[in-house]
Amino acid sequence: MIKPIASPYYAKLAYILISLIAIGYIAVLGKEVLAPLVFSFLFAMLLLPFARFLENKLRFPRALACMLSVILFTVIIVFIGYVVGMQISSLSDDWPKIQVQLTQVGNEIHRWLVNTFHMNVNQRIIDAKKEANSAAASVIGSTFLSVSSIVLFLVFIFIYTFFILFYRKILISFLLKAFGDESQVRVFDVAEHIQYIMKKYISGLFIEMLVVCAIVFGALALLGVKYALLLALITCLFNLIPYVGIFTAMAISTFLTLGTAGPTKAIEVAACIVIVHLIDSNIIMPRIVGSKVQLNALIVVLGVVAGEMIWGFSGMFLAIPVLAIVKIIFDRISDLKPWGLLLGDATEYEEILVEKVAKKSDSPKEVKQKAEKNDEV
To answer: Which of 124, 144, 279, 337 is a good FRET partner for 369, with 20 to 30 A between their CA atoms?
Structure first.
């Protein structure tokens, strides 16, 4: 029997890089189809326990159970959109007053710049207004197309979610046949682990959103900020985007507060959102969502940037779930385990060090001492 020739490392690396480039290129070309499909896959993982409950406990037909699950989820999303829309409509009534207040603040900043740095920005402001007026027509004209495309995007998400729930057994059977009988155990392991991690992550993420929204709303209400509920909703929604989202929410909240209550209150709002973010990152997120998605911060930031480049705003939301799924697959394929380690956090590296030292020493005390020495290095 002829033994297979092992490929050198640089050849394996070239295969992996070429595959990643090809996948990225396909993702860019298939954005209109793949982006809602990935959202639907994640929502299907979230709704799967409820659909199984309707099928197994209440004896509903699969089609009816899947349809009721999607309808219930749609009602929740529509309710959230209705609350946000009502808050935005009330904001639009006060928009002329906000514009006047912002103009006054802008004039004060202009006077301060002139008196302090002897800068005259009048011409720059006039040029900016001309550019804004020239672009207003195109923005208004594209607004309807943007709204219609978003509605169509959501409709496709709900349709795909129903079909993924309904045909989930066919999808699993396809994976088993595609990877062969010898890989059935591994395929089942990957599928079950992805389902478990995504269900815990997404459900925990929704709970975290509610907690953050309640804390921000309570804090802003105590500060007497107008539109406290709208700013709380904006903060919890943008908080879904790692690192970038909280700064965007802080900028929007500070801008609106500046137009309604002045600079002092705007600074208080910015400080409040930063404090809530610190509490969320160090207490709420680890306790509610947990450490199920073990990704290091550098990979998360790079993933958010790459997601925005490939799929725009939706790619920023999908960065962490997609990276988590990729890491689960990498960790279960021997040739890709180093890449899975690259995506992981420091705890995995520490576990590997302890395992390697344990193989060379029978003394638990020596294992602990060598592990601590490696940590110091």
So the answer is: 337
Q: Give residue 69's pLDDT.
A: 92
Q: Indicate the DSSP class of residue 284.
A: I
- pLDDT tens digits for 112-121? 666 776 655 5
Residue 377 CB burial class (10 angstroms; 0-12, 13-18, ≥19): exposed
d(CA 212, CA 239): 9
pLDDT given for residue 104 in this prediction: 73
Task: For 51-62, write each residue's pLDDT tens digit.
Answer: 999 999 888 999
Output the DSSP codes for 147-211.
HHHHHHHHHHHHHHHHHHHHTHHHHHHHHHHHH-GGGHHHHHHHHHHHHHHHHHHHHHHHHHHHH
Percent of the chain scoring above 90 in pLDDT? 8
What span, in angstroms and rounded, lies between the C-alpha atoms of 236 and 214? 9
Contacts of 35 (CB under 8 A, 6+ apart): 153, 311, 314, 315, 318
Residue 216 near residue 308, CB atoms below 8 Å = no
CA distances from 271 to 118, 167, 265, 275, 298 (A): 30, 48, 10, 6, 25
Cβ atoms of 310 and 34 within 8 Å: the answer is no
